[in-house]
Design a protein that fits this description.
- With 179 residues, this protein is mostly beta strands.
- The protein contains two helices and ten strands.
- The longest helix is centred in the N-terminal third of the chain and has 20 residues.
- The protein is globular, with a radius of gyration of 18 Å.
């Protein structure tokens, strides 16, 4: 009886682990339009609106972001200023170095280690580790970040926040470029 139960539990654990490791191949978007280049898109002023939803889909936080993008040679710097619906503010500064036509290496003040990112067609993807304070303790999540450029110039960002390969929260952001 216990052996059968343990066997089923092990099979379920393996399935969850494999499901957490699978991801869409960004190469399938090559050639799609409009073509997204993050240096072109984020240079200058960008504004965004977003929300964080927990595993059940309930909205936990809403926020706006003001972004100043600077391009110098093959370097893109994004200075992001967040304002949350509860009044909390935050700042993240990303620095991306172009590493070939469709690859970027990125770092940010609150992200663990360097980030490798890719763009193909209308899509940009990066995966990175981010420590987040949750109920008074710090938990490091793996974020799988996907951006999709729309024909009207808006950029939609969907991010899965994962721990041990299981999605515990999702972030949705809509970006619009300044005039």
């Amino acid at each position: 009886m216990y052996r059968k139960w343990l066997s089923r539990l092990a099979l379920l654990g393996a399935a969850l682990l494999l499901a957490g490791c699978t991801s869409v191949d960004i190469g399938r978007y090559a050639g799609t339009q409009p073509r997204l280049d993050i240096a072109d898109y984020f240079e200058g002023q960008t504004r965004a609106w977003g929300m964080v939803q927990d595993y059940s889909g309930e909205v936990q936080r809403r926020f706006t972001v003001e972004i100043e993008g600077r391009v110098e040679g093959d370097t893109l710097t994004l200075d992001e200023h967040f304002v949350y619906d509860d009044g909390e503010t935050d700042r993240r500064v990303w620095t991306f170095e172009r590493d070939g036509e469709d690859r970027w290496l990125g770092t940010a003040n609150d992200v663990e280690g360097p980030v490798t990112a890719r763009q193909a067609g209308h899509v940009f993807n990066m995966t990175y580790r981010l420590p987040v304070e949750v109920s008074g303790r710090e938990i490091t999540f793996t974020l799988d970040d996907w951006m999709y450029l729309q024909p009207d110039g808006r950029l939609i960002n969907r991010t899965a926040m994962k721990k041990f390969g299981v999605t515990l929260a999702e972030i949705t952001i809509v970006f619009t470029r300044g005039e």
